[in-house]
Amino acid sequence: MKRGHDSAAVRACFLPAVLLFHDSLLMAGCAPLRALRGCMPHERRKTLQTENPAKLEGFASLGITGALLKATEAAGFDSPKPIQIKAIPPQIEGRDILGVAQTGSGKTAAYTLPILSSIAALGTKRLPRTARALILAPTRELAVQIEETIRLLSKGTHISTALVLGGVSRFSQVKRMAPGVDILIATPGRLTDLVREGEVKLHETRWLVLDEADRMLDMGFINDVRRIAGATHRDRQTAFFSATMPSEIESLARSILKDPVHVEVAPQGTTAAEIRQSVVLARLKQKRKVLATMLADPAMSSVMVFARTKHGADRVVRDLERDGFSAAVIHGNKSQNARQKALNGFRDGSVRILVATDIAARGIDVPGISHVVNFDLPDEAETYVHRIGRTGRNGADGVALTLVDPNENAKLRAVERIIRMKLPVAADHLGEPDPQGEPRIRQAESDREHAQQPREHHRAGRPGGPAKPRQGFGKKPFSANKEGGKRFSDKPQGAKRFAEQPAGENRAPGKKRPFRRRGQQNAA
Length: 524
Prior knowledge:
The protein has 524 residues and is an alpha/beta fold. Among the domains are: 58-264, P-loop containing nucleotide triphosphate hydrolases (Rossmann fold, 3-Layer(aba) Sandwich), CATH 3.40.50; 275-428, P-loop containing nucleotide triphosphate hydrolases (Rossmann fold, 3-Layer(aba) Sandwich). It has 21 helices and 14 strands. A seven-stranded parallel β-sheet has the order 3-4-2-5-6-1-7, with helices on both faces. It has a seven-stranded parallel β-sheet with strand order 10-11-9-12-13-8-14, sandwiched between helices. α5 runs parallel beside α6 (107-119), α9 crosses α11 (222-231) and α16 (381-388) crosses α17. The chain is globular.
């Protein structure tokens, strides 16, 4: 107690003198003491902002910090996009998100960065066969693209990822999930199988993302999505992203989201302003020649051609190869390895033309695609928006050309209603005659028609004139005798057998003889 009283007495004695000396130094302009006085909390914050204002710019202003911020900047993400500015802060706060954004708007980073920021603080201890976060994608290509983005943004961290999708070995996926992972990217079909078999457990999944939910609806995955969402942790955080919002998607969103923050950066069906869109009028038989003429332009350096069906895509590739163009194709009948090989070749520039069905309308993020050509208009008008969204990404310029047959006018009007603009006509080939096929192709078609003609046509030029009609298996020709009576002979075949039968068993005219075994005949 005495020591305490002495300390208080000392402070009371010397404090006025110290303050007087301090004020005199400040009036004299002493910079060190002025800086010392500025070490109050409010002044400290102002000093830090003045010394390094860049820390509160870009993604740092959205709450991204530490190694994740460095990896984001190293990956080339300098300034956040509108969807990221609106979606990242609420997710960091723990809110659910309902996002509507056009393709190529940057929504992948909008939902991956908050998840990475939260998981980075949890450590490396994981439960076997579990995933802390689950991202559902409708197609294999989109799932692969999402995992590549996550690896890029989480470089230098301990975060682990796994892919679960169809078309590849199940064994490698089960082995990857055995120790547990931080983020699982999956397609609904294969994930449903593994969850049913107990190879994947979702009860510890606290972050759920549905990307391109409207596409999952179109592909028939809506029930699988409901079951998967029901198997995750009850206190999960959910992000729901879709390019369009039909009534079925709104119903699904209401069933799995809790008081979501609605984020919409562009109206549904809006296309990027950097894409120049136009149509080329051509009949179906003219489209091959028109496409070949277009591809002869060196400005079309990297081209995606969309066909409506898988067989149509294969036919376009065959025609391009006959016309001297090298092209690759991806569609649902191709294995995952074949599809990935074609996509990698298109990405590294060794393949100039990639022909695809609508399965590739989403999830392909290849920088530098100069042109998108719609060889056929899609059945769903919304798919047009996703198709042309492969070009003009990240602010780059792009061109979208659509070949329109007169029978596709109704589909064209539906597309124009969706995008709320009338597409200009770049060229009109309807007044031109249909091109003639190649000689070899014409000869093959002639041979097929020739083979379908009756056999009299083939033997007409042989000696002896046309052959008589075949009666089959060496039977006598169908003819009548001179008296115009019975066929083959005056005595019908089998007359002896009929004579040996009991009375009353002869066949009536126009009726079949009853079936009787040989033993039964002998017994009779």
